[in-house]
Amino acid sequence: MKSLPEKTIERLSVYRRTLLNCLAEGKEYIYSHEIANLHNITAVQVRRDIMLIGYSTTLKKGYNVRALIELIGDILDSPRGLNVAVVGIGNLGRAITAYFRGKRSRLQIVAAFDTDPEKINRVISGVKCYSMNDLQQIINEKQIPVAILTVPPDYAAKVSEALVYSGIKGILNYTSVPVNVPSDVVLENYDMITSLEKVAYYVKQKLGDNSKVSYEE
Amino acid sequence: MKSLPEKTIERLSVYRRTLLNCLAEGKEYIYSHEIANLHNITAVQVRRDIMLIGYSTTLKKGYNVRALIELIGDILDSPRGLNVAVVGIGNLGRAITAYFRGKRSRLQIVAAFDTDPEKINRVISGVKCYSMNDLQQIINEKQIPVAILTVPPDYAAKVSEALVYSGIKGILNYTSVPVNVPSDVVLENYDMITSLEKVAYYVKQKLGDNSKVSYEE
DNA sequence: TAGATTGTTAATCGATTAACAATC
DNA sequence: TAGATTGTTAATCGATTAACAATC
């Protein structure tokens, strides 16, 4: 279980949520092909992922849902949970905060940061907002290793530098600009413009194909 | 230029925005290693991407920024642009709409949909909101091939079905649940919970390594 | 020319899938 | 047993990178 493929990590996160739903519906066992159908992937891939995390069952009645959830938790979750900060609490920051609140108990959003005096020291979407000037202090006091970056594009570079300097270990970058971090800081780029342009590209391809039944006219 | 790798498409989208910035700063030519540094990738990868899109330069003073931007536009953009709908105009939907407005002129958000009577027929984040009941009618009238799905998780499955039925060709799924679409519909899953759990996982790994300088203590 | 740069093939790496043995 | 299912190796596919020829 040393080093799991990145794609497997992603799928485990998705599997877990599906499995939690199954459990809520009273389903205690699930076949690999059932998991596969729910995610539009193949049963082989599901079985391989499950093999990689070291789970196996002697029964032929599918996997034990509870056991799988627990095992995925052992892999993904930190034992004491992990604190998260939202940096930049504008439209997007607020939406994401609201979106996460209470969802994943092991990942707690414990602070927001902004430069707007109107927001500082207030509770926004259930999270206390601090001044960007107190970044380092709060991050240390509250032991926050993960930051969600939702500042305006022009601030992304400087703020991410400040985050790294303040001891942040992982950044989830929602801004549409690339940020630079040292190699010991985990960086995940989550570029919404790219994802939309990508869909648009493939849609364009399809529309082009279909012998002129085209929106492009 | 038949079929470009998916990863190349993603990078082209990012390159273009960087190149537009360069142009705004008056930079007319750019080396492959400059592009690479801005994106934390290798110059070889940049050159290969550029090779794949069929651009090349005889000069040794870098690529012509304007020409590259135009060429990327030819590949990614539809000649007449592409209309986009935001389906579910809650926190996240509004944030995304505000985020996109005016950014990419070739991808226009032309309609929002919701079930909340308070929202229907009002203009929200600059976009007219329609009833979810009028999905098919508006999508056809306005010729909207792409939908951004930001409804609450429990509605995702049904609404995506309705979108497909209404003739949508591409869905950008921001909900944290998998949706099922026929193979001729482009689907891009954009799971925020997964991306955060992924960062948390890799941060956990790092913290575990560093001989007990750990937040988990 | 020497150095910097581009363009491109071949090798490598990582992820998915095909094939199939094993088991209930 | 036959059929369904799991577990796992090997083959394949896709993406990145190494290596290097060509050019200014």
Which descriptors would you attach to this protein?
homodimer, 217 residues, alpha/beta, Arc Repressor Mutant, subunit A, Rossmann fold, 2 domains, 7-stranded mixed beta sheet, two-stranded antiparallel sheet, 8 helices, 9 strands, 17% strand, disordered C terminus, DNA-binding
What does this structure look like?
Helix content of chain A is 45%, strand content 17%. With 217 residues, the first copy, chain A, is of the alpha/beta class. In chain A, strands 5-6-4-3-7-8-9 form a seven-stranded mixed beta sheet, sandwiched between helices. A two-stranded antiparallel sheet of chain A has the order 1-2. In chain A, strand 5 and strand 6 form a beta hairpin. In chain A, helix 2 (32-39) packs across helix 3. The longest helix of chain A is centred in the first third of the chain and has 19 residues, at 6-24. The first copy, chain A, binds a DNA duplex (24 and 24 nucleotides) through residues 5-8, 31-33, 41-45, 47-48, 50-51, 56-63.
Strand order of the largest sheet of chain A: 5-6-4-3-7-8-9
What structural class do you assign from the helix and strand content of chain A?
Answer: alpha/beta
**Oligomeric state, counting identical vs distinct chains:** homodimer
CATH architecture of the largest domain in chain A: 3-Layer(aba) Sandwich
How many helices of chain A in DSSP terms? 8
What gap, in angstroms, lies between the N and C termini of chain A?
A: 53 Å
Kindly give the count of domains of chain A: 2
Shape of chain A: globular
What is the CATH third-level topology name of the largest domain in chain A? Rossmann fold
The total count of strands of chain A amounts to 9
Low-confidence stretches of chain A: 210-217
CATH superfamily of the largest domain in chain A: NAD(P)-binding Rossmann-like Domain
CATH class of the largest domain in chain A: Alpha Beta
Helix content of chain A: 40-55%
Beta-strand percentage range of chain A: 15-25%
SSE string of chain A: HEHHEHEHEEEHEHEEH
Q: What gyration radius of chain A follows from the Cα positions, in whole Å? A: 21 Å
Largest interface: A-B, 67 and 67 residues
Give the biggest sheet of chain A. Answer: 7 strands, mixed
Overall pLDDT score of chain A: 92
